[in-house]
Amino acid sequence: MTIDLKLIDARMLTDRGILEGGIAIDEGRIVRIAKTPNLPDSDSVIKLDGKLALPGLIDAHVHLRDLELSYKEDFTTGTTAAAAGGFTTVLDMPNSKPPTDSPNRLREKMDVAANRILVNTGFYGIIPSHGYEKMAQEGAAAFKIFLNRSTPALDVKDDLSLSAALRECAKANRPIAVHAEEHSLIERAKQRLKLGPHTPEDFLKVYGGEAETASVARMLSIARDLSARIHFCHVSEPGSLTSIQKAVSAGRKITSEVTPHHLFLTKDVIRKLGGKAVMDPPPSTETGASALWRSLRDGRIDIVVSDHAPHTLEEKEKTDIFEVAMGIPGLETTLPLMLTRLNLGEISLERIVSCLSRRPAEIFRLTRKGRLEAGFDADITIIDLKKRHRIDSSAFRSKAKYSPFDGVAVTGAAAKTIVNGEVVMDEGEIQAKPGMGRVVRVEQL
After folding, report:
1. Residues 94, 119: one domain?
2. Within this chain, do residues 280 and 424 fall inside the same structural domain, yes or no?
3. CA distance 435 to 6
């Protein structure tokens, strides 16, 4: 038998540890992992010169924009940024324009994306007025609740409305991803401020902190007797994590995520950079960030996500801080930042693979992803652990050319991104055309 492709002279992280040898790939799937002489003949061979092969990285929280927001980012530029950053699969958030709030809109979004994406792409649905199970049947990966704003389908101030939404998500057998910020606390904090233009310090008085921890506690209370799977997005405060861990210890189906900007930045970055560093929630204190890092390293936080949220520079440079669009690009900085910590001995390779590949696949039930194993999709990220460079947002593949990490020295990067058995990125160069990625439709169980 002659297969399509084999990767040789690799070091591979598998369930059996790091193995030396190669990976045989045919028709987009891994068919064998073995010593190089034991691999079948192939049409193509890629020699990896001892580089590290990991299960394809998964970013479970990105905003690819497109549709009416394509001036910020589109499916092609966003997934090109993902490939450049080493990600083989991303899950796109539903607060697009128009929002992904019905089976028809989900289907339309998937149809538009199909010919534009370079990596595999799944989609969240926002809480709809009806049609939960139909959205699940269309392949929605999860449903998203924003507790900092009400929608026509959901009054976030009403516990009964939230409880009903959680029950519907549970019946549809999908996780509920929660942006936890208590709307009432944010509004009261804004009312205490003087008239604008408002400053970065004003922003920090309003967002984060108590608004998040109170919202996490409230959601856990509402969901206590329900079977819903709750996933807390971009946890930024140690107090929030304490509540989450108590629920996990009690046997509840709760998971959580953290971003590099909450792990490695503090509130001071907003004081220093202003609008270019505004994100929601903002980073914590140095003590808080250190606590989040320890929790991630020790396995108390499930996954790392970029929360890639691109905007134009004009939207980030408003005079009044409350007029600034919230969010930063992250698809091209997440992996180098994490690998730098690996090279410093502050986290294990196994932990990085768990939080950037295996656990996202498990939480969102992405079948045949998250492992280097025969029968799994040939989504593979090749790592150069020694590559030294400085983060330069002007070179991003994303349309968003700004980053609070600009100029930061990092060690380690993706050398190749292989999606469905095809090389999409090779040493920084994009090798594939739009449409190479597949729309991920999560199956009904």
Report:
1. yes
2. no
3. 23
Decide if 354 contacts 54 (C-beta within 8 A).
Answer: no
- pLDDT tens digits, 132-168: 999 999 999 999 999 998 888 899 999 999 999 999 9
- Which of 215, 124, 114 lies closest to 176 in space, CA to CA? 124
How many helices and strands, by DSSP H and E, does the chain display? 15, 18
* Class of residue 298 by CB neighbours under 10 A (exposed 0-12, middle 13-18, buried 19+): exposed
Catalytic residue set: 307
| 322 and 349 belong to one structural domain | yes
| CATH of residue 138 | 3.20.20.140
Say what the pTM is.
0.97
> What total number of domains does the chain contain?
2
- 308 and 381 part of one domain: no
Q: Distance of alpha carbon 67 from its chain centroid, rounded?
A: 20
The gap between the terminal CA atoms of the chain, to the nearest Å, is 34
* Structural domain span for residue 269: 57-363
Q: Could you report the per-residue pLDDT of 269-292, keeping only the tens digit for each?
A: 999 999 999 999 999 999 999 999
> How far is the C-alpha of 325 from the C-alpha of 418, rounded, in Å?
33
**Same domain flag for 148 and 248:** yes
Residue 389 lies in a domain: yes
Q: Give the pLDDT confidence score for residue 196 in this predicted structure.
A: 80
Q: How far is CA 194 from CA 150, 173, 191, 279, in A?
A: 25, 46, 8, 22
Q: Are 330 and 257 in contact (CB under 8 A)?
A: no
Q: Looking at the structure, tell me whether residues 183 and 81 fall in a common domain.
A: yes
Give just the sign of the alpha carbon dihedral 340, 341, 347, 351. negative
* 309 and 401 housed in the same domain: no
Give the chain's length: 445
pLDDT tens-digit series, residues 316-370: 999 999 999 999 999 999 999 999 999 999 999 999 999 999 999 999 999 999 9
The yes-or-no verdict on residue 445 having pLDDT over 80 is: no
List pLDDT tens digits, range 211-267: 999 999 999 999 999 999 999 999 999 999 999 999 999 999 999 999 999 999 999
